[in-house]
Amino acid sequence: MSLMTGEEYVESLRKLKLNVYYLGKKVESPVDNPVIRPSLNSVKMTYDLAQQPEYEDLMTAKSNITGKKVNRFTHLHQSAEDLVKKVKMQRLCGQKTAACFQRCVGMDAFNAVYSTTFEIDKQYNTNYFENFKKYLAYVQDKDLTVDGAMTDPKGDRGLSPSKQVDPDLYLRVVERRPDGVVVRGAKAHQTGICNSHEVLVMPTQAMKPEDKDYAISFAVPTDTKGITMIIGRQSCDTRKLEKDADIDVGNKNFGGVEALTVFDNVFVPNDRIFLNGETEYAGMLVERFAGYHRQSYGGCKVGVGDVLIGAAALAAEYNGVPRASHIKDKLIEMMHLNETLYACGIACSSEGYPTKAGNYQIDLLLANVCKQNVTRFPYEIVRLAEDIAGGLMVTMPSEKDYKNREVGKYVKKYLVGTASVPVENRMKILRLIENLSLGTAAVGYRTESMHGAGSPQAQRIMISRQGNLGQKKSLAKAIARIEE
Ligand code: SF4
Ligand code: FE
């Protein structure tokens, strides 16, 4: 088997015995939970699209490990063209879900771990690269969804991992055995973990020699004993729990959820370990993963932005003002911002180069510029969407009132915009904009744009490192004819 259908993916998840909690209760069947299901549907889209001939070129690739056709979400990029296709695939998935489809974190982790383990083995004669190749062949063959897990809770940000009052605030090795290691700790903000078959853990930052036990990378199935997922709250999340809720949810079929994921004495066998104590390589792994994920946002956020811009344009039409010049100008501005993000995603991909292991790495400077823009532009796009939508987006009566026998007639009468447009359509579009700007999807489109793949300051540090200010000064001196 190399490609699963969407339905097979859902059934494969049903077989997992995940330990998931939401709102203080254990979730017996995450697949059927109304809060989790839309997020599962978003991942399912990555399987469904791969089955469609028109998307085959974007959604699938030929594995360099097995030579077989695989889903691009499990692929090691073999060229700059592959990197470009990755971004295009993410834009497509964003357009089809208007949500986070979660599978990119694993893809970005594969590519970072592959090239880093190659370099560790060269120096230390370890076996991590072979371990990882074997693991990835398994993932590709089964077409699994793997959650990349990087961000530790971090406790006191001013202290290194081994100096924390509670040593578990960074995930660490607590026992070394002949057949593997036992780890304890947690990973925060784990997008899509409860929709994944496997979790691939990486360190969260560069490590010093005294943090040896924290320099650990490995992969285990998500239902391994000791793993607990505690789903995060999202603004407006319980609307999904309301009976027959549809319009009010904003995006009924798709979404994304995150979880605090706890590893309480989890055993990892030797052949699933990809870094174990080589502290100087933790930074390389983090930098490469973050670079890929900063590229990723130049695709996924753009696809979601396409939906939001379309929704704003429809809201203007339904409000009766599609020809107002200021509305047209705001829509142009939204498109300009959105395409600027895309341009950055494509640019850092086109400038990709081969790593020592042979897979392709994006241009780090341009990927960081991409993500820095992502920390800002979606906020401006949302602001403009809210401007166009009008205040009704946040004061509109509920779907239940719209359907109520007593007051429904008033809602229908007074929520009319353009007479030819059914009130229900106007409500649907306004709720979609609400969902993306301040509802459940705002987690992915706004705050994740700020903090996902590293907070803004992390990119500024990389830009200062990669920006080559010295060369720029030399250029200025040459033009100004300054000799030293
Ligand atoms: Fe993929 Fe974007 Fe979600 Fe990250 S935020 S997993 S890049 S869809
Ligand atoms: Fe993310």
UniProtKB/TrEMBL annotation:
<dbReference type="InterPro" id="IPR024719">
    <property type="entry name" value="HpaB/PvcC/4-BUDH_C"/>
</dbReference>
<dbReference type="Pfam" id="PF11794">
    <property type="entry name" value="HpaB_N"/>
</dbReference>
<dbReference type="InterPro" id="IPR036250">
    <property type="entry name" value="AcylCo_DH-like_C"/>
</dbReference>
<dbReference type="InterPro" id="IPR024674">
    <property type="entry name" value="HpaB/PvcC/4-BUDH_N"/>
</dbReference>
<keyword id="KW-0285">Flavoprotein</keyword>
<dbReference type="Pfam" id="PF03241">
    <property type="entry name" value="HpaB"/>
</dbReference>
<protein>
    <submittedName>
        <fullName>4-hydroxyphenylacetate 3-hydroxylase family protein</fullName>
    </submittedName>
</protein>
<feature type="domain" description="HpaB/PvcC/4-BUDH N-terminal">
    <location>
        <begin position="5"/>
        <end position="275"/>
    </location>
</feature>
<dbReference type="InterPro" id="IPR009100">
    <property type="entry name" value="AcylCoA_DH/oxidase_NM_dom_sf"/>
</dbReference>
<feature type="domain" description="HpaB/PvcC/4-BUDH C-terminal">
    <location>
        <begin position="282"/>
        <end position="480"/>
    </location>
</feature>
<dbReference type="InterPro" id="IPR004925">
    <property type="entry name" value="HpaB/PvcC/4-BUDH"/>
</dbReference>
<keyword id="KW-0274">FAD</keyword>
<keyword id="KW-0560">Oxidoreductase</keyword>
<dbReference type="InterPro" id="IPR046373">
    <property type="entry name" value="Acyl-CoA_Oxase/DH_mid-dom_sf"/>
</dbReference>
